[in-house]
Design a protein that fits this description.
Keywords: ATP-binding, DNA damage, DNA repair, DNA-binding, Helicase, Hydrolase, Isomerase, Nucleotide-binding. With 950 residues, the chain is α/β, with parallel strands linked by helices. It has 38 helices and 30 strands. The two termini are 49 Å apart.
């Protein structure tokens, strides 16, 4: 249970005289709240979890009693492990720990991936008193005979940022690793340091192997002073807009943030994606060069910047030479950048825990109130931020999503146990593995299947008759290639050709899709042009440019999913406001009423709810789901959260696709599901699926829907590699293995089971989809069909785009697209005589293609590799798939006959197809650029949703 008492004001009295003297020398006169509450239980030897904001002295809270226990005692081996998820230990933390070591005559050392071989040997033969390490380095340490001897005297384990580890496979791996440590050292005290979480008892059980844990929790919500602001453009914003090259609406956001920075001594500006960080930094840089804003210095910090660049900006901000720092989630972890008295969150933080972690960084030095501002950009963003702010004050924090039963982690740790012992009985391995909380409920047959898979992959020997698992020649290589549970994705170093230094990194996906010579992009708040891409060395060479155009790097994994409870409260807000409008309430009166409950001024709430007064159709809410639109583009508006909407959208798309024999395009956000239907489906079909699908069948239907899909392929590759089934699944310059091949290779294996488990854990909430169907079918939620798209239904279409990119950002991209399409090949096929068929570059296609055999202009333009379509047209007896292909070919030919080469170009766009090509061609435009911009928009839409297409 969480500790709720005030705690001992004389907490330092629990420490020995030597430590108290050092405290006095260090200037620690009054303990912080975590120290008051937790030092006593830790000093008494209790397993303890300390839940408090970053910067409240948590490190000293844990380590002072540990130092006190170790000081003045003698031992051969390591007395305490300090495990941190940070790849490189925070430099400030290292300096602090080393200061204590010097004062207390304790040897404190660090061990991670960059530690030299000499230092590692020295740590084994002459172990330090305290070793600071990472989960991965601990794995390696446990396999060394001398390091195991060095760990035999271990009495304390401190796990920093345990909330971060608990929600990852790294944490599941560490949980077993700590049980392996217990095999070497016997019982030891475990201490966890955590940011605010919704289920501290569960995190405590994760930390200790469910052996009992004292939870000391600092209430953050009651000391949170957060205001949600949706700026209203002013006359001043005209000047700001001109200075930074944007519209007044966007300028008002930058202006409000700049004013907050100017009004405070040290301000962190948190954003949700790295691309927003870069774009916003570019805006602040242009503002600084003008006289339209305050005289402030703002830097940028995120994980794709080179370590040197990150360290430089950390030191500059800490020294007071920067007024503000734009940062991403990397700054949520324990990086000390000095005094912070205000936090700005740009756009909704998406989760309660993120708001608490981020704003909790402000004002903590003297147990002050944590002050922050959430700057929102549209009504839905504001409603979401309001819901999160209220939930934060009420302490309604999301639970940590612990990876229970991850099979690839078990495979990794089976190999670790074999490395530890040489050979081990299967029963003993099972007992050690299941002592770790994430695997407490795993049955013996699951572990047996995992071991058999490892044996088939030549990772271990399995003697089934003797129930014995032992090492083989490939065990050592396998284990050391898989020390980390972080998926192995390629990143390209970005190097400045002019300065000869590294700027940062780019994800492989962005390089493959976008980084061609001549492309411009933003990184480190500056603009760069790609000079060369070297796939063998995985480097992108760039040159700095002054041109204001630039495409923001499309880092992967950016979207923070909105939890279902937050989305549901947004729906509740919409319902309450709509009901008050129905009772004759005015916008001003309703906003004033809501301001008593939610953290915003009435003016912001008025802007957030004004559109609700204008919608005459049924308003979607926590009790009403609407189906809106006509023709092919249909939206289901339901407040299910990101993963719930993705799950329900997959169900609808899969079942409609099965019924119509056509692929259904689908995209989802926390509040709506956008569907692109074939001609023979409409809203009534969507409604029928929602009203008739058995909620108990959701999980198996979802599993069927992802079989062979690209969305599952990467996870299958990653899991298979962790099992040793794919030795080198990624080679430079080659495509990844297809989903269908992977499915066929690993179906009915622990590898496939784990890929599915992980996919559901990270991407889909089957329970939320099932609950939504039950609520519809029981009448708990109304289901209404709305004829046309409404403002709420379309709010998400552009809501999550990175609109902060420079105005000319698409210019270079469109030129690159035009050049690419000109060089791309197209297959031309005459549907009239069926004799002519040829591949050629589009630049060599005539303005009005015609058949050289029969003179017809009915020429179908297909993908260059598409040999099936001409074969289908020529077939005398056609199956259903060939009939569909024939219809598509004739539609393509009709477009080319009517619009010539313009149709050929549109049809060559990736993911465009004849229906979208027709829309693009028939749209009136003032210039050719807009034609290519529409193709680009469609290609981007396809890239975002292609994982949901068959």
């Amino acid at each position: 249970m969480a500790e709720s008492a005030r705690g001992d004001p004389a907490a330092f009295a629990a420490l020995g005289e030597r430590v108290r003297r050092a405290l006095s020398d260090r200037g620690f006169e009054t303990p912080t709240e975590p120290q008051r509450k937790a030092i006593g239980p830790i000093a008494n030897g209790e397993h303890t979890l300390v839940v408090a904001p970053t910067g409240t002295g948590k490190t000293e809270t844990a380590m002072l009693p540990v130092f006190d226990a170790l000081a003045g005692t003698s031992r051969f081996g390591i007395g305490a492990l300090y495990v941190t998820p940070l790849r490189a230990l925070n430099r400030d933390m290292q300096d602090r720990l080393e200061w204590w070591g010097e004062r207390l005559d304790l040897d404190i050392q660090v061990r991670h991936g960059d530690t030299s071989d000499y230092q590692r040997r020295k740590q084994a033969t002459d172990p330090p008193d305290v070793l600071v390490t990472t989960p991965e380095s601990l794995q390696a340490m446990l396999t060394g005979e001398r390091m195991r001897e060095a760990l035999a005297d271990l009495s304390h384990v401190v796990v920093d940022e345990v909330h971060e580890l608990a929600a990852s496979k790294r944490g599941a791996q560490l949980a077993v690793g700590l049980e392996r440590v217990r095999e070497v050292a016997g019982p030891s005290q475990r201490i966890g340091l955590s940011a605010t979480v919704g289920d501290p008892d569960a995190v405590g059980a994760f930390l200790t192997g469910d052996r009992g844990c004292r939870v000391v929790e600092i209430d953050v919500g009651s000391r949170l002073a957060v205001e949600v602001v949706q700026p209203d453009p002013t006359d001043r914003d005209e000047r700001v807009a001109a200075a930074i090259g944007t519209d007044p609406e966007t300028a008002s956001h930058v202006r409000v943030m700049a004013d907050r920075v100017a009004d405070n001594r040290g301000t962190l500006i948190f954003v949700n994606t790295r691309s927003t960080a870069e774009a916003l930094a570019a805006r602040f840089a242009r503002l600084a060069d003008s006289d339209a804003g305050p005289d402030i210095g703002v830097g940028v910090h995120h994980g794709s910047l080179a370590r040197e660049a990150r360290h430089d900006v950390e030191d500059t901000f800490k020294a007071g030479d920067l007024d503000g720092l734009i940062c991403t989630s990397s700054m949520e972890l324990g990086i000390d950048v000095g005094h912070v008295d205000h936090v700005v969150q740009y756009r909704s933080p998406r989760e309660v825990r993120r708001l608490l972690q981020r704003v909790g960084r402000a004002g903590h030095r003297r147990d002050q109130e944590s002050r922050g501002t959430v700057v929102t950009d549209r009504p839905e963003d504001s409603l979401e931020a309001l819901a999160i702010g209220r939930r934060a004050h009420a302490g309604l924090v999301e639970p940590a999503k612990i990876h229970h039963g991850s099979r690839d982690t078990l495979a990794n740790q089976v190999a670790g146990l074999v490395m530890d012992f040489g050979e081990i009985e299967a029963g003993r391995a099972y007992e050690i593995l299941t002592r770790a909380t994430p695997f407490a409920d795993v049955d013996p047959e699951t572990v047996r299947a995992i071991v058999r898979q490892l044996a088939r992959n030549n990772v271990v020997w399995l003697e089934e008759d003797a129930d014995l698992i032992s090492k083989r020649s490939g065990t050592w290589q396998y284990f050391y290639e898989n020390l980390s549970m972080i998926p192995d994705e390629a990143t390209y170093d970005v190097r400045d050709q002019t300065a000869g230094r590294q700027v940062g990194t780019l994800d492989e996906e962005f390089v493959r899709q976008s980084a061609t010579p001549g492309t411009t992009f933003v990184q480190q708040g500056k603009l760069w042009r790609v000079a060369e891409v070297d796939d063998d060395r995985e480097t992108v060479t760039v040159t700095p440019i002054e041109d204001p155009g630039g495409d923001v790097p499309a880092w992967t994994g950016q979207e923070i999913p909105v939890p279902e409870p937050v989305a549901r409260e947004v729906g509740e807000l919409r319902r309450v406001v709509t009901d008050q409008y129905g009772d004759g309430g005015t916008t001003a009166a309703i906003a004033a009423d809501l301001a008593d409950r939610y953290p915003a001024r009435p003016t912001t709430i008025e802007r957030a709810i004004a559109d609700l007064s204008e919608q005459s159709a049924p308003v979607p809410s926590d009790r009403t789901i609407t189906i809106e639109g006509s023709g092919r583009e249909i939206s289901i508006v339901a407040h299910l959260g990101h993963l719930g909407a993705a799950a329900l959208g997959r169900i609808v798309a899969a079942l409609l696709g099965q019924q119509t024999g056509s692929s259904i395009g689908m995209d989802a956000d926390p509040y709506r599901i956008d569907l692109e239907l074939p001609p023979r489906a409409d809203v009534t079909d969507v409604r029928r699926v929602l009203e008739e699908t058995d909620p108990d069948h959701v999980r198996p239907l979802l599993e069927l829907s992802v079989e062979g899909a690209d969305a599952l392929a990467f996870r299958l590759q990653s899991v298979a590699r962790t099992f040793g089934a794919l030795k080198d699944w990624r080679t430079s310059g080659s495509a990844r293995i297809g989903g269908e091949r992977l499915h066929d290779a690993f179906e009915d294996s622990p590898i496939y089971e784990e890929a599915i488990r992980e996919f559901f854990h990270e991407e889909l909430d089957a329970d939320a989809a099932s609950d939504a169907l039950r609520a519809i079918q029981s009448g708990e939620r109304d289901l209404a069909i709305v004829g046309e798209h409404t403002p709420i239904g379309t709010a998400g279409r552009d809501g999550y785009s990175e609109f902060l990119r420079p105005e000319e950002a698409d210019a270079d991209v469109i030129e690159t697209l035009k050049d690419r399409l000109a060089e791309d090949e197209i297959r031309l096929f005459c549907v009239h005589c069926e004799e002519f068929e040829r591949r050629k570059p589009i630049k060599r296609v005539r303005d009005q293609p015609e058949c050289p055999q029969c003179g017809s202009t009915r020429i179908a333009a297909c993908n260059p590799w598409d040999e099936a379509t001409p074969a289908a047209v020529r077939a005398t007896e056609k199956d259903s798939e060939q009939q569909r292909a024939t219809r598509q070919a004739f539609r393509r030919a009709d477009l080319v006959q009517s619009h010539g080469k313009r149709a050929v170009i549109a049809l060559a766009g990736r993911g465009v197809g004849p229906e979208n090509a027709a829309r693009i061609i028939n749209k009136w435009r003032e210039d050719e650029t807009e034609f290519y911009r529409d193709i680009l928009d469609r290609e981007r839409e396809y890239a975002r949703t292609k994982s949901f297409w068959d």
